[in-house]
Amino acid sequence: MTHNRQWILRERPQAEVTGQHLQLRSVARPIPGAGEVLVRNIYLLVPPAMRLWMNEEDSYVPAQPLGETMMGITLGVVEASDDPALPVGTYVNGMGGCQEWFTAPAAQLMPLAPHPEVPLAAYRSVLDVQGLTAWAGLHEVCRPQPGQTLVVTAAAGSVGSLVCQLGAGLGLRVVGIAGGPDKCRWLREECGIAATIDYKADDVAARLDALCPGGIDMVFENVGGPVLDLLMERLNDHARIALCGMVASYNAGGTQSANALMRLVTKAARLEGFLVRDHFHRYAEVASRLQALVLEGKLKYRIDILDGLEHLTVALDRLFHGRNLGVQLLRLSPERLA
Amino acid sequence: MTHNRQWILRERPQAEVTGQHLQLRSVARPIPGAGEVLVRNIYLLVPPAMRLWMNEEDSYVPAQPLGETMMGITLGVVEASDDPALPVGTYVNGMGGCQEWFTAPAAQLMPLAPHPEVPLAAYRSVLDVQGLTAWAGLHEVCRPQPGQTLVVTAAAGSVGSLVCQLGAGLGLRVVGIAGGPDKCRWLREECGIAATIDYKADDVAARLDALCPGGIDMVFENVGGPVLDLLMERLNDHARIALCGMVASYNAGGTQSANALMRLVTKAARLEGFLVRDHFHRYAEVASRLQALVLEGKLKYRIDILDGLEHLTVALDRLFHGRNLGVQLLRLSPERLA
Hints:
The structure is a homodimer of 338-residue chains. The first copy, chain A, has 338 residues and is of the alpha/beta class.
């Protein structure tokens, strides 16, 4: 076992990612240099943004170069160390790439202290970027006021489901929009979000009118497209839309209605993008609060784990067709080696 | 002279307003009741928003009812008074409608104290809603930082030209986008805005790249459409777009590119609508500061006056084809009667 499998971006996708754009190759396992550690990746996060990284234009990170190991957000364990700060056996979060092994200076990794009653994978999902994203978008961008109405799109997704529950915990009227009866049922029965809309089956406009009779004060937006237009048309005065992503447009372009955007003017409302990196200074505090909620059973989450690095394109395909149930992770190796 | 001419909304326009949608009728001049005054309208403001008011849906004001006197923002003079607070001869701002005379309770009108060296019409333009709109959008929404780049669309317009000059006065790098060489020349030679783009003749994308080599920090947006997409594609981190209007869409719908809107996410930027009414508490202070700038010759403006109430549709047509030079007013009667 001295090889290292890794995914290379071979060709930039114009629309959906397929096997022609990515190539799995096997190279020699890297050897850590002075002050470096060797990490065995256990979990690889597969976020919708991975598709953005593949575009020629820079996004919130520089564009992924062609022919190089695909960028990836990972949780792993130190298997060899030249830095006493990170002894062998330490679990670490890092930008470990879409590969099984990597080396890095210890300072580039974040050591974890997982709670024994919380699954390890939670530290690369609900208690990590997804949790901080949900918290920042809700508290810092939406700025909820008691009794207001919050609509969440991709509500059964990795971030949306947390926003729904955090919003309900604040006493907001929460409406979750998700695709399909299973996701809506999970939101209702597991997460306690009574008001759901199945955008694949329901008349979304009519359901919004019924569930938001007083209009919409806040939107946590992950999707874009026609549903966002319907939401904008129902905004109240001084409404806030936390724009977390527009996954509907990542593969294909798309447009938003100018008439719907005009509602931002007539309601003095705000459409505000945000990036979790602007909120990392709150990371420790927020992660600790979220872990407490998880341990109390007040913050439900789902992690959708596929085994094997070779399933990256399958995972991306699940994600863009809404077939993942919660945060999409790939498990690249066992949590503990036999 | 006991009649009163007024415009009635006969039919809601689907696209551009023409003579078929509005009807000019003559009725009896109203008689003021107890506590009311009779006002002779002198100036009628013809803002782009007038087109919005004609739609069936409410905008930031309730929709204009069919068959009733078209709503209008006016400056007039009291010709008969049953309230000692507003003696005959007082100039007043008010919502006097698209008509020559109206009556109202004194409390609904704002008395003016025009400076002898400032044209009366300025009190229904630069020193009124346009000035406060420019000030609020720039200071309260864009929140300028020293050395940042501000792009203003409809830059030769009634609000845009003020934003350009106020921004330059703050030491910002200001780029004005306007339609046609005359408007651009006026901005450069009269208003001192060196960097202009003629969107009708120039390659807007190339000019933006040349004039904003460090990207765009703030946009004061009046127009929407393809130019807004180009601006969004060039936003810097934490950029702010003050969305004052989207005149490109008022007549016809239209769309914005989802890819361009995604830039709000990747740059953690903000697209924020605003309404001048949320800033009226600053009115006296801002108007006084703007009047001082006007008297010092540091705030140039143009007022485009057409004579005669009957020219309302002509004025709207000028406005939506960008042929007005500055604030579009109709003069309905002389400032001082002979």
